[in-house]
Amino acid sequence: MSERVLMELRKITDLIWEIPKQADMRVPAIVYASSRLLESVKKDLTLQQARNVACLPGIQRMSYVMPDGHQGYGFPIGGVAAFDMDEGIISPGGVGYDINCGVRLLRTDFNEQDIAARRKELLAEIFKEVPAGVGKGGITRLSRSVLKDILTRGAEWAVENGYGTRDDLLMTEEGGRMIEADPAHVSDRALERGIPQLGTLGAGNHFLEIQKVSHVYDQDLARVFGLSGVGQVMVMIHCGSRGLGHQVASDYIELMENKLGTKGLPDRELIHAPIRSPLGQQYYRSMCAAVNYAFANRQLIAHWVRDVFAKVMGSAKGMRQVYDVCHNVAKFEKHTIAGEAREVCVHRKGATRSFGPGRREIPEAYRAKGQPVIIPGSMGTASYLLVGTAGAEELSFSSTAHGAGRVMSRHEALRRFRGEQIRDELQKKGIELRSASWKGVAEEAAAAYKDVDEVVRVSHEVGIGRLVARVVPVGVMKG
Amino acid sequence: MSERFRFLDHTSDAKFQAYGRTLEEAFANAALATVSLMWDPAAVEKMLDHPVAVQGRDLEQLLVRFLGEVIYLFETRSLFVAAVDDLKIEKATEGFRLRAVFRGDDRPARYAIFGHVKAVTYNEMRIDQGCPVTVQVVVDV
């Protein structure tokens, strides 16, 4: 299972590669990558995992790997697959442990000169207001019943309780709430892990950045998404469903193993249940609850960031939400397959939905243009705003990349880098850094990641997500 | 004492092998390896004992559930594990049963935390009951 197998990889174009259907595969697998990105993909188990996904019951069309693809558990990170609602499956390993790990982008009316003298203070205040790192508690201890309310209503709960505005909900995937969520299927353990962590950034690759727009590729779209031009200050929040989401994933992997057994699975993390089976439905409803927790989490953090801007800059006016996207999720969506519009269960694991113009899921203000796609870079590097395309429907079930994707182990990064040294280097580039852990900073060194510029270039050229603007950090808070 | 555990390279997460003369010892060392990604177990006072009991349909699931206890008790009870004592694994009607005692402290202010293990996975998991017994685990960090 974990041995790398040499497999045939057929070049379709410079950026599209196919693993032809063979042995147990029900469909071929497609990898979107430049030859440079492909080299790193070949070094781990990504291709093998894409092939394993292609063997799952009810898979439609292809098993896809996005340009930032790398080895995951079960599905590769950057893996996208859609399954037939009747014959298909749902798999916790196709969503990932950090359910609705995602990104929220806020615009501001400030430009870089406005905040230049206050940058340090802004970051210090945000660091004070937003709990980050390991074991840092969130908002005052929640009762179990309030937590269940949050799992049911997501960011709506947060807005109703004074954190943010109704407009934030409009500019969030699913309106900040997946309505199928049912906390009754979430275990006590998951609830217990969720109680102390709501409103926290967490550790690992999660971050909060104050950024400035460094390049605009598409003026018209940038304007529609609320961008005024180069130098404009933005805020990006990258975090997920914390321990609660991880526990939901672990719980349902175990429940599915106990119910359905592990025989014949090429990889134990590929355990799955039929979508319409009771267990498949329970996982889906619990996953939706974890998605809602993450939406509420980012809603609270965004609210505190606005509070800090109001305090330090005198105003948070104009700090509207551009959008909030999920990176780890399974959803029931309508797609056209072989000329027929059908509902399928799309798994996106480390991938961003990229609906093109016209989809009713897109907020009205953007609907004629396409859905904003937010792709964070690694710590201290550029991040990107893209737009979904009509072509992505056919190419990737309306999905594109979600980030840079690691190329170096944390262990190796720790051998090579020191957190304090990275802070000094960033400072020379005009980027302030605050972190709960220097070790965490070293682990997340930009050199440990793929080149995000290359990832978005492939997305743009393949046509699964088109470039709108590039942003670079001026202040980084790492969990 | 011979090596208890060793970290191996893994692109996105943390992978380790833990060793023991017995399966029990290897499992206990796997818990210490997990803990050592978050804090220094040698620095934690052994103030309290916390018994744990888990079941698994096979040894792999038993290991995932056992290591999951370390994360769960840290996140919900602030338990910093310093040592694992009296670990016993026995056959149960279906699969295996494990009992052990975590020794450690629940006063978070006293200890430096430098990482977070969020989940235990089956990815590349191996349980080799040779000599020494070796268990290999990838944890999500």
What does this structure look like?
The complex is a heterodimer of chains A (479) and B (141). Chain A is of the alpha+beta class. Chain A has a single domain, classed as tRNA-splicing ligase RtcB, CATH 3.90.1860.10. Chain A has 16 helices and 19 strands. In chain A, strands 7, 8, 9, 11, 15, 16, 18 and 19 form an eight-stranded mixed sheet that branches. A seven-stranded mixed sheet of chain A has the order 1-2-3-4-5-13-12, sandwiched between helices. A two-stranded antiparallel sheet of chain A has the order 6-10. In chain A, a hairpin with a 6-residue loop joins strand 4 and strand 5. In chain A, helix 4 crosses helix 11 and helix 10 packs antiparallel against helix 11. The mean pLDDT of chain A is 94. With 141 residues, chain B is an alpha+beta fold. Chain B has a single domain, classed as Archease, Possible Chaperone, Chain: A, domain 1 (3-Layer(bab) Sandwich). In chain B, 23% of the residues lie in helices and 39% in strands. In chain B, the strands form two sheets. In chain B, strands 1, 2, 6, 7 and 8 form a five-stranded antiparallel sheet that branches. In chain B, strand 1 and strand 2 form a beta hairpin. The longest helix of chain B is centred in the middle third of the chain and has 19 residues. Chain B is globular. Chain B starts with a strand and ends with a strand. The model of chain B has no long low-confidence stretch (mean pLDDT 95). Classes of the chains: A alpha+beta (479), B alpha+beta (141). The interface between A and B is large, with 45 and 37 residues.
